[in-house]
């Protein structure tokens, strides 16, 4: 059987029992043993069926997957952040779109906490059969490995890429009543009153935490980090002034701006976002070279059979390639990407190198 390793390369895995079967024809003793009565074989088959019945579902699924019949039951798509946030919205939209290709339900499950590590761990420790899929990203599959030494999974060893989905635009957002009208206002206040200005991210030592600490280092300021389990749980605190600035996605932030409840200072992406072109990048505002692209992709447990990974990849490509779906994604503030599985693996390797340097510059370390 062929499987893909964590770098997207095809490897051969030996099939159990092959050597035993090959040697039977030339061994007289084995020929005698193979001549048992039909009655005895029937009894043994009956006993085996009864003893192994509880395992039949998983065994049948594995056989079906290796035979190309995958999926034969619903697929679980794990979203490692809270319901109502941009990642959750993307996951539900993608899940519904993939159902047409897979001909099975795609059930979204929110496994929240530890900057995405809880959800990623759940998938990493699941059977490698294609029925548990992670909607992963920079944090779960790159950053946490460098900032959290006690991480219960290894993103390279335990997870493998299935599809590169999109890039996501994040913006620095303040409440409409905030005294900070610009990024310069915010940083000037932080410079004047060290540790008095607070910012929100979606998890301790996650990518957004790294992004804001990296900006703080570049600006020579010290701000207080307040981690949340997602965008939605932080909203009330932002609007009521308990935190000063939040790092949030464009799709989550834009309705707040339209309703007059929030204001955007800058985007942390390399370029201005198409859906909010009036918002400048951090790089434009005095920090050349600053860019923290955030992306999402699908990941499965390492060792998942090649046909299963390819089926998932094809379903994701069909979903994100449909014109109507692409329009929905752009409207949400995400840019569809795509590409091959091997190309995604190469991209991930380059991302690991880039984030390693950024984390080193911030001085952040895990516990």
Automatic annotation (TrEMBL):
<feature type="region of interest" description="Disordered">
    <location>
        <begin position="1"/>
        <end position="39"/>
    </location>
</feature>
<protein>
    <recommendedName>
        <fullName>Extra-cytoplasmic solute receptor</fullName>
    </recommendedName>
</protein>
<comment type="similarity">
    <text>Belongs to the UPF0065 (bug) family.</text>
</comment>
<dbReference type="Pfam" id="PF03401">
    <property type="entry name" value="TctC"/>
</dbReference>
<dbReference type="InterPro" id="IPR042100">
    <property type="entry name" value="Bug_dom1"/>
</dbReference>
<dbReference type="InterPro" id="IPR005064">
    <property type="entry name" value="BUG"/>
</dbReference>
């Amino acid at each position: 059987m062929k499987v893909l390793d964590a770098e997207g390369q095809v490897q051969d895995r030996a099939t159990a029992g092959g050597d035993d079967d090959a040697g039977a024809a030339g061994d007289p003793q084995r020929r005698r043993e193979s001549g048992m009565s039909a009655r005895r074989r029937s009894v043994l088959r009956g006993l085996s069926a009864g003893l192994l019945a509880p395992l039949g579902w998983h065994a049948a699924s594995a056989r079906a997957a290796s035979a190309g019949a995958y999926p034969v039951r619903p697929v679980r798509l794990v979203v490692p952040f809270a319901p109502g946030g941009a990642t959750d919205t993307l996951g539900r939209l993608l899940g519904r779109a993939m159902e047409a290709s897979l001909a099975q339900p795609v059930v979204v499950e929110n496994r929240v906490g530890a900057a995405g590590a809880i959800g990623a761990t759940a998938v990493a420790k699941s059977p490698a059969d294609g029925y548990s899929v992670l909607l992963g990203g920079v944090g779960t599959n790159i950053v946490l490995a460098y900032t959290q030494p006690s991480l219960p999974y290894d993103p390279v060893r335990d997870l493998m890429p299935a599809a590169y989905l999109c890039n996501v635009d994040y913006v620095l957002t303040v409440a409409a009543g905030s005294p900070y009208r610009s990024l310069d206002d915010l940083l000037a206040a932080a410079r004047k009153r060290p540790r008095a200005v607070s910012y929100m991210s979606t998890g301790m030592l996650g990518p957004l935490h790294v992004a804001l600490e990296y900006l703080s280092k570049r600006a020579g300021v010290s701000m207080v980090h307040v981690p949340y389990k997602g965008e939605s749980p932080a909203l009330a605190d932002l609007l009521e002034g308990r935190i000063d600035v939040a790092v949030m996605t464009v799709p989550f932030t834009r309705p707040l701006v339209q309703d007059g409840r929030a204001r955007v200072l800058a985007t942390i992406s390399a370029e201005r976002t198409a859906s909010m072109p009036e918002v400048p990048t951090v790089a434009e505002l005095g920090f050349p070279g600053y860019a923290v692209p955030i992306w999402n992709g699908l990941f499965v447990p390492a060792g998942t059979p090649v046909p299963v990974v390819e089926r998932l990849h094809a379903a994701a490509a069909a979903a994100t390639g449909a014109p109507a779906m692409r329009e929905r994604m752009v409207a949400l503030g995400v840019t569809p990407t795509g590409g091959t599985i091997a190309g995604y693996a190469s991209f991930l390797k380059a991302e690991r190198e880039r984030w390693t340097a950024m984390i080193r510059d911030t001085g952040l370390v895990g516990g």
